[in-house]
Specification:
- The chain is built from 6 helices and 15 strands.
- The strands form 3 sheets. It has a 6-stranded mixed beta sheet, with helices on both faces.
- It starts with 6 loop residues before the first strand and ends with a helix.
- It is an alpha/beta fold.
- Helices cover about 15% and strands about 20% of the residues.
């Protein structure tokens, strides 16, 4: 995911309908065969589909314009034109489709991941066989196809995960993800080694738990400081949050308050989610006294008696099993407390049709 992209602007166009044909039957011994012009084919539609193997919108950065195929014109002998092929645009789960002009939400692929027909192709025009009557037995009238519609869209990606890892840079989020899952994020002994969100799957019993690691936050992230602000939206759909507190940092007692304030400034829903605090690096010793950092863990738990506080060491494995069980419990207990949008909320379907009423055209 080095070419990670979570936003893209594209232009989509539905196919135009083919023109109707004005033709007449001409055969030997049939001098007055009558009208025989066929209808034009329908234009192709613009269809969005979910591909579970996609984790980024990078593929939309290289191709910005998507156009469905036009319908073919009708032909003599009453032959209808061929319908135009649809244009299929693949998106990763959790994608949002918005209007570029109003920013209105058109479709949300987090609740319903079935194919979404956004623009239907234009109808094909009627051939002159439709206009024959007792008064006019040789009509030369045929209708043109309905043109397609062009719309500019903004595509956004909000990663869908069960647990979101939140913490300052170098707090051990990537190391924990590496320990828990098959994800292999970049790990180094300096801040901001994580520059893009990473996903991993933790298998606990018979259940898979998706964990998201976002770049570390710093104070002022909700106002744009550091890297975290750009990716805070990716934890908005998680069921629960795990705050990782680096116990080797002398500001460990203030870290949770700062992180909670940044999340609340970004979105009030984030601080309503189920959560736990995990003090990391319990295997290390303090520089001043050489004491075990588990003493700092005790102080952290005492400061936040209402929070679930655990201690872990990715290096020694201390507390890893307990944290895994806690993640499983959080995902099972958050059905009614995710802070995410209600799937029953009304969302504009965004379906635009380029149909027309043939009867009105005939009149």
């Amino acid at each position: 995911m080095e070419r990670f992209a979570d936003e893209a602007i594209i232009e989509v166009t539905s196919g135009s309908g083919g023109n109707g044909c004005a033709a007449f039957r001409r055969e030997k011994y049939v001098p007055k065969g009558g009208p025989a012009g066929g209808d034009g084919g329908r234009g192709g539609s613009v269809v969005f589909t979910v591909r579970r193997n996609l984790r980024t919108l990078a593929h939309l950065r290289y191709k910005h314009i998507y156009k469905a195929e036009n319908g073919r014109d009708g032909e003599n002998w009453g032959r209808y034109g061929q319908n135009g092929a649809d244009i299929i645009i693949p998106l990763p789960p959790g994608s949002l489709i918005r209007s570029i002009e109003t920013n209105e939400l058109i479709h949300d692929f987090s609740h319903n991941q079935e194919d979404f027909i956004f623009l239907k192709g234009g109808n094909g025009g009627w051939g002159n066989i439709h206009f024959k009557s007792s008064v006019n037995q040789a009509p030369r009238k045929a209708l043109p196809g309905k043109p397609g519609i062009t719309v500019k869209l903004k595509i956004e990606l909000q990663i869908m995960a069960d647990i979101g890892l939140v913490g300052f840079p170098n707090a051990g989020k990537s190391s924990l993800l590496d320990r828990f899952t098959n994800a292999r994020p970049k790990i180094a002994a300096y801040p901001f080694t994580t520059k893009i969100p990473n996903l991993g799957v933790l298998t606990s019993g018979d259940k898979d738990i998706i964990i998201a690691d976002i770049p570390g936050l710093i104070e002022g992230a909700s106002q744009g400081a550091g890297l975290g602000i750009k990716f805070l939206k990716h934890i908005s759909r998680t069921k629960a949050l795990a705050f990782l507190i680096d116990l080797s940092d002398d500001n460990y007692l203030a870290a949770f308050d700062i992180l909670l304030n940044e999340l609340g400034s970004f979105s009030a829903d984030l601080i309503k989610k189920k959560r736990l605090l995990a003090g990391t690096k319990t295997d290390l010793l303090t520089e001043d006294s050489g004491a075990d950092l588990k003493g700092r863990l005790t102080e952290l738990a005492a400061k936040y008696p209402a929070e679930e506080v655990m201690g872990i060491s990715v290096f020694s494995g201390d507390g890893i099993k307990e944290l895994s069980n806690a993640f499983l419990r959080l995902t099972e207990d958050t059905d009614n407390n995710t802070g995410a949008d209600d799937p029953n909320d009304e969302i504009n379907t965004g379906l635009l049709q380029t149909d027309f009423d043939e009867e009105e055209e005939i009149e």
